[in-house]
Amino acid sequence: MFFYFLLIVIIFQRCVELFIAKKNEKCLKNQGAKEYGQKHYIFMVMMHVCFFVSLLIEVPFFAKSISSLWPIWISLFLFTQIGRIWVIQSLGTFWNTKIIVLPEATVISKGPYKYIKHPNYLIVTTELLVIPLMFKAYFTLICFFILNQMILAIRIPYEERVLLNETNYQTISEFPRFLPKLVKRSRLK
Predict the structure, then answer these.
(1) Element holding 36 (H helix, E strand)
(2) Average pLDDT for 108-137
(3) In 10 A of CB 12, how many CB atoms?
(4) Cα–Cα distance between 47 and 119 in angstroms, integer?
(5) pLDDT tens digits for range 148-187
(6) How many distinct structural domains can be found in the chain?
(7) Residue 31 placed within a domain
(8) Which spans are transmembrane here (predicted)?
(9) Which domain holds residue 124?
(10) Is residue 97 situated within a structural domain?
């Protein structure tokens, strides 16, 4: 029962995210933003849909039970949800599931973006690990972890190229993130 409840919550959450993304897309395009990466975006969407289908097949049909480590996995899952809200709030109208870039925009470097370049991808990757682990869905875990990494290997470099060409990302991307205290101040100027 918990499995179905969690899936319904996640699917509802994804629908809310798509609503926010569509609203932000319209706002940005009205300001002259351009969309990039449409060719690989469809594969990303298909991968996420198939992830849920795979869970719906593997867990009930192979009588998978909840892991004895479920308190750890649910805690990590809840932590990712806090991270997701932080990402969406930090980016505001710039947040989207698509690559939509407003030329000459100032890239956001606050919130989680102050510490890591692509926190949303880290959050999604964590979810793709934690949700299957919670229900011992190891086939789904392995398949979709690999598929996600393949898609991100295309998407992240593509997104960074677009940001470098269209925004002030160069100045932001030079700032070392994740371990900023280990870098001397003179290098940051």
Answers:
(1) strand 34-36
(2) 95
(3) 10
(4) 19
(5) 999 999 999 999 999 999 998 876 655 555 444 444 443 4
(6) 1
(7) yes
(8) 42-63, 70-88, 121-147
(9) 2-172
(10) yes
